[in-house]
Specification:
It contains 9 helices and 20 strands. With 389 residues, it is of the alpha/beta class. Helix content is 27%, strand content 30%. It has 3 domains: 66 residues, PUA domain (Archaeosine Trna-guanine Transglycosylase, Chain: A, domain 4); 105 residues, 2-Layer Sandwich (Transcription Regulator spoIIAA), CATH 3.30.750.80; 185 residues, Vaccinia Virus protein VP39 (Rossmann fold, 3-Layer(aba) Sandwich), CATH 3.40.50.150.
Amino acid sequence: MKLRLRISPAAERQIRAGHPWVYDGSIREQNREGAAGELAVIYDRNDRFLAIGLYDPESPLRVRIIHRGKPQVIDKDWWRKKLEQAVRKRNELFDEHTNAYRCIHGESDGFPGLVLDRYAHVLVLKLYTSAWVQHLQQIIDLVRELIHPESIVLRLSRNVRSELVDGQTLSGPAITKPVRFLESGLRFEADVVRGQKTGFFLDERENRRAVEGLAKDREVLNVFSFSGGFSVYAARGGATGVTDLDISPHALESAKRNLQLNGSKTAHETIQADAFDWLQKTERKFDLIVLDPPSLAKREQERATAIRAYQRLATLGIRKLRRKGILVACSCSAHVTSQEFFAAVRKAAHASRRAYTVVRTAGHPPDHPASFPEAEYLKAIYLQFEGAA
């Protein structure tokens, strides 16, 4: 017996408008209990087919929509076509100088709660819902058929309940050390087994390229540096020196290796410290500062606090800029909109009483498309200041 649901009128309107989520509080009728990963068929108030999605009984995000419109059979061929579409999009985006990018970006590619990242010959599959566990082998088979990786590594969000192990190799030779890859002709390594997310922040590629173009003859500070991606690009762009600031010694060691992988001769310094504390206390000044913190609002309730934190961080960064200095401020908090984030940074800039120009703003790169409002997490703003601090 199929799992059948009816949802609230408001949820019906959202689904018809293309939204991919149904929360538990929107479910009005359900014919029986559902299991994780089961296909839930949603009908409207007139008993007409509305959509079908993956059911997760342990999540308040109860159904993730995979199809809406006319009824269709959801089988392996159906999923193959979805994967082919996603792969085809990426084939047109990158050349031989970049072999690391996102192959599947969750809901925006029709695979809600699942991402697939490529690092050269290794693919990393990350699950954000237990609903994918029972479909995992089918997805692995299709990935091997269409993309032909040497190995596939599994990463699991903390909320996923399964006997599977985070970091295990699902297919091919076991991955036991960082994987090396190319991005814009630069060499990097990613700890795909234990690193943050899937091992590297592929979504910041376009911003790293922009920083490269701004770095010539500038001393660069990379705050929340992680594995030094911005610094590697800045060094190639002609920076006089790059400084990585991060609280994690593991991240800073990775940054050192990434600079070494590229044979960089640029002066490189690492500082292990809390970013807010160090920026508050240091007397040093820089020509270009990148502020790329982890998400400061993981829940909606943290939004107001995060906005204040972004403004404080921008204020501290601006104070450390020399004349003609450039601030690059980034946010990956989905609960803070672009408008709110840009306003916070501009407010800090205005309070500095220094003349400034907004050079550019940026959002998602093309391999990380955002097809609905909650998916629009990434944003960046570039400001150049005239006078000295």
